[in-house]
Write a structure and sequence with these properties.
The strands form three sheets. The protein has a four-stranded mixed sheet. The chain has a four-stranded mixed sheet with strand order 9-7-8-10. The chain is built from twelve helices and ten strands. The chain is α/β, with parallel strands linked by helices. Helices cover 37% and strands 16% of the residues. It has three domains: 3-106, no CATH class; 124-212, Arc Repressor Mutant, subunit A, CATH 1.10.10.10; 217-271, DNA Methylphosphotriester Repair Domain (3-Layer(aba) Sandwich).
Length: 271
Amino acid sequence: MNRHHADNGAGGWRELADGLHGLRAEPPATLAPAVLERVGLADAFVTVDGPAGPLLVAYNGRGISATAPGADAGGFAERFQARFRRPLRPADRPPARLVAQVERLLAPGRRGTPPGYDLRGTTEFERAVLAKAQEIPRGQVRPYAWVAGELGQPAAVRAVGAALGRNPIPVLIPCHRVVGSDGRLTGYAWGVPYKRALLAAEGADPDELERLGRRGTRFFGSDTTHIYCYPTCAHARRTTDRHLLRFTGAAEAAAAGYRPCRVCRPPALAG
């Protein structure tokens, strides 16, 4: 065995990956699945405890690549193959470090460091939208318009919705924390009931969110700080009823002499 083949370090794996990426679309069946997974030409999946039930998590050497509800392992593999053109199989020995990262990220009351994600096949705009969704804290929500505004493209609300609808890694990349401007829990690939369950598990109140929306309440203000926030913002939650004001939009809040919260960053001029 020559020196090149004896190198089992990171450099050796990178050289192997470079060589394998030159293969045809369907790798030879003689290649070990674990090798294909290590270099990102195939994926394996594990089952973890999610906030709304078992969660299937697909991964390869580049990172986590997809998720699905735990009751649909067979359908998960088929949909994965159709979308990513890569095989997916149950993991023989789930990597302990990855499972621990996912469990810490999902644990109630804890904020884990997100694992690496394999977002091949998404556009630059879609990746920006997904990154912005990850900034929304657990138990809080933001409207689609907030994401568009944060990206400097306030007119791109529909495009934001489409990008979130294509999120390959729901739950871990929390697109469920993005809602309609009127508070409605719309637009979730796994269905609105699943979205409600996720938000409730994180400490949000989906029923209250929708009630506020029907009443036209978009923001809460504090008459002690003269700051207005999204209703689920941690600062809004600390405001007692005695000091709480409700605003239908940012223009109404501004007219009353209130400024936007620097933490949840509601719009400053338009409701």
